[in-house]
Design a protein that fits this description.
The protein is mostly helical. It is built from 8 helices and no strands.
């Protein structure tokens, strides 16, 4: 399995996933989450169960995340809540935030966020008909 991973990680899709997803060591995850945080992102949904990952490995990954990643962000939560209140009250300038580097979606159903509801519905209908 390790050999297959070594081969896969050099593919274009793997490199895109590694750049746009949250995959890696706690230090890598903290850095990526800081980048999101710097653009005003305040919620991230993590998919820890993927493919044939054993339950024990999923639990170990979640425990590692909770122990080595979450504390840094939890410590800044009061400051973030003040910022968010300023945003909601119109006292913060969101135009200064640069989120251009985060237009890639690493999740499985990227059409959900890239297509309008009507486009998504049409695409799903075509798929059901076997046309794409």
């Amino acid at each position: 399995m390790w050999e297959a991973y070594q081969e896969w990680r050099h593919t274009d899709k793997a490199q895109e996933t590694l750049r746009s997803g949250l995959i890696g060591s706690p230090a890598t995850i903290r850095q990526r989450l800081r980048e999101f945080e710097d653009t005003g992102v305040d919620q991230v949904i993590l998919l820890a169960q993927a493919g044939r990952t054993p339950h024990e490995d999923i639990c170990a990954s979640l425990e590692l995340f909770a122990r080595d990643v979450m504390p840094e962000f939890h410590a800044r939560e009061p400051e973030h809540q003040r910022w968010k209140a300023d945003v909601l009250a119109g006292r913060a300038d969101l135009d200064a935030l640069n989120a251009d580097g985060f237009k890639l979606y690493a999740h499985q159903n990227e059409d959900i966020v890239r297509l309008t509801p009507a486009e998504l519905k049409a695409k799903m209908a075509a798929k059901e008909r076997g046309a794409g």
